[in-house]
Every structure is written in C-alpha cells, then in structure tokens.
Design goal:
35% of the residues are buried. The protein has three domains: 56 residues, DNA Methylphosphotriester Repair Domain (3-Layer(aba) Sandwich), CATH 3.40.10.10; 99 residues, Arc Repressor Mutant, subunit A (Orthogonal Bundle), CATH 1.10.10; 168 residues, Winged helix-like DNA-binding domain superfamily/Winged helix DNA-binding domain (Arc Repressor Mutant, subunit A), CATH 1.10.10. A four-stranded mixed beta sheet has the order 3-1-2-4. It is of the alpha/beta class. The protein has 14 helices and twelve strands. Helix 7 crosses helix 8 and helix 12 packs across helix 13.
Length: 353
C-alpha cells in the first residue's frame, strides 16, 4: 500500500485511505501532499473509519468527495451489469477484466452494503420479480435470469423476499440505486408511490435506516431501475448544478405522527433559508420540544429533498447533521450562493467565489 502512496497511484483511490498520525489528517493514496514516513501512517478501508478514529479529511485531495463519479473500473463494471443484468460475472471473469475480485468485493461492501456477487444476484432477482409479476412462469424466470436451477432460484428468492416466487405479485419491493454527488455517494430507494430513501452512504446510521425501511414497508430492498429513482437523480443533478430549487419527485415517508409533522414542516422551509429548532418545534405544534425535533430531524430518511439541513441553532450556528456538518455547510452555501447571484460555487474548495 505504501508503494501506491509513494507513486500517487489514482487507481487505489476509494480502495483504502491514508491517515497521518503526526497531522491528524487522512487522504487519498493519490494526494499530492508531501508523503509522510511509513511509521507515521495508518491505513483504513473506508473514509468513515478514519473519521471515527479522529482524523480530519484533507483539504487538498478531498477524500470525502467522490467528484460525482465512482472510479473508472467501478463505472465500467456497473455499466456491464446494467447492460447484461441477467448474466453473471464470476471471479474468473473479473480477472479477465483486470479487476481483482477482492477489490470489487470490498468496494461494493463499503458503498452498497453487499458484495459484488450479492449485488449481481439482487439485480437478477429484481429483474426476475418484474417478469414474474408480468406473468412469466417461475421456471422461465429462473433460467432466463442466470440461475442454474429452479430450486436454486426459489431458495435465493425466498431468502431475499421472504416469500416464494409464486407469491411475488403480492410482495412489496423497495428498488434501490446509488447516486454520485459532489457531497459523496447517496443510497436512494423508491416504491411505486414515490421516493422513500435518500441517505449518505457513509452515514453511521445508514444500516439502521435501512432496517427501519424494511420494517415500515414490509419490503425487500433490491437494486434496479425505477422511474422515481430516475427523476430523483435528474433533479439532484440540477440541484447541485444550481438549476433547481424545488423538487417535484413524489415522496413517501412513513413514521410516527410527530415525525411526519416535523418532516412536513421541513418541506415548507424555502430554498436558501434557515429556521431554528425552536421555530420548527413551534410550527410542528410542539413549542419547547427542540430536543424531540432534533431527534426527528436525525431520523429523516430523505436527505436534501426533505431539507433538514436548513434547521440551525437559535444563535445561527449549524447545530447537528447526520451527514456531517461539512455537508450541511456545503448545502447551505450552495443555496445561498444561488440566491445571491454568485457566478461560481466550488465544492472542492468549500467556498463561494
């Protein structure tokens, strides 16, 4: 790994992170900064691991910033899966593509919450579920979507969805996809009623949010394509390009009666403006319940679009944010720069010019 750091090898960016004990900063392997001595380096598999260990993100190489896209080898791999969702790439196939299977497994585990093989299997199951709902026979769906036997397909289907394939039409599904953005990758989810999940992939509470989602919808989460995901991704792209201020993608956000009141009030905060937790509590009909309002904010499963980043402390300080205060500051600066007519906004330098 140190060899990759010394040579500033960009192909290792996102695969591991380099933390420097003497500075308290962590970087990408390709960071142009002066290289530390090997004895002063700690290696982490994920940026969040370095953050939890007390290191700060480097301002030169921006290890938390995905630059709007995954590494080239991941992008090509995802394109291959999308072009041929019914096929299966084994480890030998990955090696022929000059991709280390362990590297693919680690990247998908960190960014998708599953290995690459599990991602492929979920993708095939999702396609099969669609075809069964359209009237296809189970045996035909199994073979046409890359499963070697009907029994193997039934076992995988039952494990993923909790029901046998013959009951597929009645099984709820949350279709998921990962969006790249200037503030890091986002995991999105949608049902036929609307977008129900948009969360930062490195958020510590992501796993709990997914579990809550499964419980609320009594549904399986399956990678795939969905019209609401397409619309959400398009609107987010325009939001970050400062060409959209109001989202129109339909939202589905089940929760307690109090949580729904708070989240509904969040949707009423205008673009580029902020309110205090005290004001939000009053608008939600619970004056003085700032702490409860803050907890409800933290439980919001649709970041950015349900704008909990627009709630700050009474004294104007940022307060908390599940995605990290640097993201909250970025989002607020982006919106304020748009309203003030600033010609350019650079996420990489974290400043408005």
């Amino acid at each position: 790994m140190y060899r990759a750091v010394r040579s500033r090898d960009r192909s290792y960016d996102g695969i591991f992170f380099v933390a420097v004990r003497t500075t308290g900063i962590f970087c990408r392997p390709s960071c142009p900064a002066r290289k530390p001595l090997p004895r002063n380096i700690e290696y982490y598999a994920a940026a969040r691991d370095a953050l939890f260990a007390g290191y700060r993100a480097c301002k030169r190489c921006r290890p938390m910033d995905t630059n709007g896209r995954p590494p080239d080898w991941v992008r090509k791999l995802l394109a291959r899966v999308e072009d041929q969702p019914d096929s299966r790439l084994r480890d030998a196939d990955l090696r022929q593509l000059s991709i280390d299977p362990a590297r693919a497994r680690r990247y998908f585990q960190e960014n998708y919450g599953m290995t690459f093989q599990a991602y492929q299997r979920s993708r095939r199951l999702g396609e099969a579920l669609t075809h069964i709902r359209e009237g296809a026979r189970v045996s035909r769906a199994a073979i046409s979507h890359g499963f070697q036997s009907e029994s193997g397909f039934r076992d995988a289907f039952n494990k993923a969805f909790g029901k046998p394939p013959r009951r597929a039409p009645e099984k709820a599904v949350v279709t998921t996809a990962m969006f790249e953005s200037p503030v890091g990758p986002l995991l999105a989810g949608a049902t036929d009623d609307g977008l129900c999940l948009l969360e930062f992939c490195d958020r510590r509470a992501l796993e709990a949010q997914i579990d809550t989602l499964r419980s609320r919808f009594a549904a399986a989460l399956v990678p795939g394509r969905h019209k609401w995901l397409t619309q959400a991704n398009d609107e987010l792209t325009r939001y970050f390009d400062r060409r959209l201020e109001v989202f129109s993608v339909p939202l589905v956000f089940p929760g307690t009666e109090f949580q729904r009141r708070v989240w509904s009030q969040l949707l009423r905060i205008p673009y580029g403006e902020t309110i205090s937790y005290e004001t939000l509590a009053r608008r939600a009909g619970c004056p003085g319940a700032q702490r409860a309002v803050g907890t409800a904010n933290g439980a919001n499963r649709i970041a950015i679009i349900i704008p909990c980043h627009r709630v700050v402390n009474k004294d104007g300080k940022l307060g908390g944010y599940g995605g990290g205060l640097w993201r909250k500051q970025h989002l607020l600066e982006l919106e304020q720069a748009t309203l003030s007519g600033q010609k350019d906004f650079d996420f990489k330098t974290q400043s408005v010019r």
